[in-house]
Design goal:
Layout: H1 2-21, H2 28-40, H3 47-75, H4 78-98, H5 105-118, H6 121-125, H7 131-136, H8 140-150, H9 156-187, H10 206-238, H11 244-247, H12 271-276, H13 285-302
Helix pairs in contact: 1-3, 3-5, 4-5, 4-8, 5-13, 9-10
């Protein structure tokens, strides 16, 4: 009986998931019961579920997110794209909890990360509303979100670190150039016909000139200190660099190879984050490792190799 209905059944499940992604309400409990049937009919665990449903779901999901990301990257600002990517990841996580087997979770998240972020990384980071735009306007919440998401993309953190380094260097150079421009009139050679000497009443005294120069130098130094402090705060609040030794290092001399951004060891999606519809505040190294395993599983499935099994194959809704 199952062989006669397996194709229309699979197509119905995939259509329902597609409609849900597009905003339509579906009966998640009913879908979960139908998916559970794949596991119940298979004496070998998950092989029927993987062969008849998961192996079709993952490519369709990749195609879907490739299509929507092509539209998003053109029509959305960098920040809006990041929020939509976060919502998509949370939606797929919920879909795995309510409809699909939990062994699909990391594979599906890997598909979403690759389609929405890895494949669009260059286009996103080159947008005029990307990292440099956010740094210039001190948009720290958006910077935190971008860092959290790109932590799970190969080369993503390094690209953000390089942009941050270049931005701070540029701001520091502007301050130095302004001070040099102020000093140029004082150091310029005298003209052929020297101007008339000012009257004694209008000529500044030597002590006044020294005091004015000292005040200007103090303002110049303070500008550099303010830049250093602002940049350090951005590192600590947005890019999770909380080590005192690292924070006290001169920012203008730090390279992206020196591990500018240090991820914290927390779960990527905490219960609080799931309830509030937002990612938790820090990426998780263990999740990064698991995500890589999910990508390896996808590549193994695509090449026809046997995919590793989940340690616990119990289905949960």
């Amino acid at each position: 009986v199952f062989n006669r209905v397996r194709i229309p059944l699979r197509e119905a499940i995939l259509r329902a998931i597609q409609r849900q992604r597009e905003g339509e309400r579906v009966d998640e409990e009913l879908l979960g019961d139908v998916v559970f049937m794949y596991i119940g009919l298979d004496a070998n665990g998950l092989s029927l579920y993987q062969r008849e449903l998961e192996d079709y779901l993952l490519p369709e999901s990749r195609d879907y997110y490739a299509r929507v990301s092509a539209s998003w990257v053109v029509n959305m600002s960098f920040t809006d794209y990041m929020h939509h990517a976060q919502e998509a990841l949370l939606a797929e996580q919920n879909r795995c909890a309510m409809i699909l087997h939990r062994s699909t979770k990391l594979k599906l998240q890997a598909v979403v990360f690759d389609a929405l972020l890895s494949a669009r990384q260059d286009q996103l980071l080159e947008k005029n509303t990307a990292i440099e735009f956010l740094l210039a306007r001190d948009r720290r919440q958006e910077l935190r979100l971008a860092h959290r998401l790109f932590t799970y993309v190969d080369g993503g953190v390094e690209a953000i670190a390089l942009t941050f380094k270049n931005f701070v260097t540029s701001q520091g150079n502007k301050i130095v150039d302004q001070r040099l421009a102020q000093l140029e009139p004082a150091s310029s050679p005298p003209s052929a016909s020297p101007p008339a000497s000012p009257s004694p009443a209008s000529r500044p005294s030597g002590s006044a000139s020294i005091a004015e120069a000292q005040q200007t130098d103090a303002a110049f130094v303070q500008q550099l200190l303010d830049l250093h402090e602002r940049s350090k705060k951005v590192l600590e609040e947005c890019f999770l660099l909380s080590s005192p030794a690292s924070s006290s290092r001169s920012l203008l001399g730090v390279s992206p190879q020196q591990k500018l951004f240090r991820p914290c060891e927390e779960t990527p999606w905490s219960d609080a984050g799931r309830d509030s519809g937002a990612l938790s505040s820090a990426p998780d190294p263990l999740f990064q490792k698991s995500l890589k395993e999910g990508r390896k599983t996808l590549r193994a499935s695509a090449s026809g190799a046997a995919a590793p099994r989940c340690a616990n194959d119990n289905f949960s809704v």
